[in-house]
């Protein structure tokens, strides 16, 4: 790869921006790839793998570097810290890069960035890591993790000794590169038998999922077009209109993208569409009258478009208001609407925390995919675990409730609200459902017959799930998709 040195420089710049300036990782990486479109497919893949992988394993990499470096990573200059991280990632996880190359290119980069005086330090640390590669060790695995545990056993239920508790948290944190406070939270929310599988799943490669626009093409026909173009595609695990694609370069050059034959949407998010009571709404409104839908936090528009598609395929008519908080978010919605061809979806800038009296009792169906901590998608958005702060959990719960207080006032009698998040925090999920029942008077509606049967069997006894009670949690590593929560509620007819 002729441009390895340049690519490593781009990776170093990105990692330092994300680390030092707390910038969004996806945006930084996408901007870099847009600015260097001359890179070929292999070079782009190298950039993405090295940047994303170094972020994923950052806690583990720091732990190992600190075993051989006299200066802890936390006290290194940002460029040097990230240079060591990305170089060790190549040494440990990228088999096609020789240890010698990783070390030599790091020394060159240190000099190029103006750290001539630290190039010897970089060289010494990396050579020590290479020499000790086979003996570098992670924290010792606590025996409790290999004991047969009962189904509901959380960390606090099976570990009394504070030292053992700390050992468990430390081991899981370093091994799966997850901040300790999040490991502790997961271990209190979910049984230990589940926690390790979830944490491990966040480190696995995540496929690009696309939802086929069934109004324009059948899934099998699109899959055939993709295969002819040399793009690998596999059927979704749960949904017939989902394909998992790989071996492509630019998404907008994938066959069918510009024609609006598909949109990018993970299978977990697509599942929300199954909760929409389409037939009931059509019977209630009649085929001549439009079903009024409000998507409160709509960007990039996937859920609103899926709702429109399902209603169109059922021979119904709809009017969808797709709102979000800023013009930047609406740009993404409009781009997708124009490409996919949905004229009955109206995008609008509006802050969901502000009440809109014009919608009082006028909406038949609300999609409330509210702002959340995003813990279910850390496999795709790696920087979440580094930027999120513990105090934000409570702030997000209050923000969600503020949005939901407005939403319930918009619902017509017997109107439905589909609540969803991409987090695994029960306070933002099932406890919010209980809050809506108690404080807003909404009624939960069973989803036991709404979701695909294979999925229902998987999640029936899963923590955070009560299918007859109207909600479910999808867990990475347990389900073959991102982490996601969804619930179906209805406003009582008080007329």
Short structural description:
This protein is an alpha/beta fold. It contains 20 helices and twelve strands.
Number of strands: 12
Rg value: 24 Å
Shape type: globular
- N-to-C terminal Cα separation, in Å? 70 Å
Can you tell me about this structure?
With 495 residues, this protein is of the alpha/beta class. The chain has 4 domains: 4-131, NusB-like (N-utilizing Substance Protein B Homolog, Chain A); 159-201; 208-267, Sun protein, domain 3 (Alpha-Beta Plaits); 270-490, Rossmann fold (3-Layer(aba) Sandwich), CATH 3.40.50. Helices cover 45% and strands 13% of the residues. The chain contains 20 helices and 12 strands. The protein has helices at residues 4-20, 25-35, 41-56, 58-65, 78-93, 99-112, 119-131, 155-158, 162-175, 180-189, 192-201, 219-228, 267-270, 278-285, 302-313, 327-340, 384-387, 392-410, 430-440, 453-459; strands at residues 208-212, 232-235, 242-246, 262-264, 291-295, 318-324, 345-349, 363-369, 411-421, 443-444, 471-474, 484-490. Strands 5, 6, 7, 8, 9, 10, 11 and 12 form an 8-stranded mixed sheet that branches. Helix 4 (58-65) packs across helix 5, helix 5 (78-93) runs antiparallel to helix 6 and helix 9 crosses helix 10 (180-189). The radius of gyration is 24 Å and the shape is globular.
């Amino acid at each position: 790869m002729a441009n390895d040195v340049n690519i490593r420089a781009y990776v170093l710049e990105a990692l330092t921006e994300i680390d030092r300036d707390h910038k969004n990782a996806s945006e930084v990486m996408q901007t870099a790839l847009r600015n260097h479109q001359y890179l070929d497919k292999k070079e782009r893949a190298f950039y993405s793998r090295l940047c994303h992988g170094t972020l994923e394993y950052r806690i583990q990499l720091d732990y190992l570097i600190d075993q051989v470096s006299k200066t802890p990573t936390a006290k290194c200059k940002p460029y040097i810290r990230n240079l060591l991280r990305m170089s060790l990632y190549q040494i440990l996880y990228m088999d096609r890069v020789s240890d010698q190359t990783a070390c030599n290119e790091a020394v060159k980069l240190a000099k190029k960035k103006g750290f001539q005086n630290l190039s010897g330090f970089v060289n010494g640390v990396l050579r020590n890591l290479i020499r000790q590669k086979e003996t570098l060790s992670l924290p010792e695995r606590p025996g409790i993790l290999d004991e047969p545990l009962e189904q509901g056993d959380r960390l606090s239920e099976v570990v009394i000794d504070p030292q053992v508790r700390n050992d468990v948290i430390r081991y899981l944190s370093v091994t799966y590169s997850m901040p300790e406070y999040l490991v502790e939270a997961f271990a209190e929310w979910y049984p230990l038998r589940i926690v390790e599988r979830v944490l491990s799943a966040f480190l696995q490669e995540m496929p690009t999922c696309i939802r086929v626009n069934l109004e324009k093409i059948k899934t099998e026909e699109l899959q055939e077009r993709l295969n002819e173009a040399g793009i690998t595609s596999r059927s979704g695990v749960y949904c017939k209109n989902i394909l998992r694609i790989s071996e492509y370069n630019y998404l907008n050059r994938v066959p069918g993208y510009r024609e609006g034959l598909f949109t990018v949407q993970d299978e977990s998010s697509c599942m929300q569409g199954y909760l929409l009571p389409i037939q009931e709404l059509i019977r209630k409104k009649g085929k001549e009258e439009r079903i009024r839908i409000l998507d409160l936090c709509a960007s990039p528009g996937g859920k609103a478009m899926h709702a429109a598609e399902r209603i169109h395929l059922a021979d119904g008519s709809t009017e969808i208001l797709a709102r979000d908080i800023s013009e930047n978010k609406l740009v993404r919605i409009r781009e997708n609407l124009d490409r996919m061809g949905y004229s009955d979806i109206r995008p609008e800038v509006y802050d969901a925390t502000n009440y809109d009296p014009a919608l009082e009792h006028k909406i038949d169906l609300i999609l409330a995919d509210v702002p959340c901590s995003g813990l279910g998608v850390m496999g795709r958005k790696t920087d979440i675990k580094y930027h999120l702060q513990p105090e934000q959990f409570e702030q997000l719960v209050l923000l969600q409730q503020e949005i939901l207080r407005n939403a319930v006032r918009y619902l017509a009698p017997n109107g439905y609200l589909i609540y969803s998040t991409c987090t695994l925090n029960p306070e933002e999920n099932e406890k919010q459902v209980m809050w809506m029942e108690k404080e807003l008077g909404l009624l939960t509606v069973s989803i036991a017959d709404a979701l695909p049967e294979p999925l229902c069997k998987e999640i029936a006894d899963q923590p955070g799930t009560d299918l007859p009670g109207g909600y479910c949690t999808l867990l990475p590593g347990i389900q073959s998709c991102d982490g996601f929560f969804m619930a179906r509620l209805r406003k009582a007819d008080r007329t």
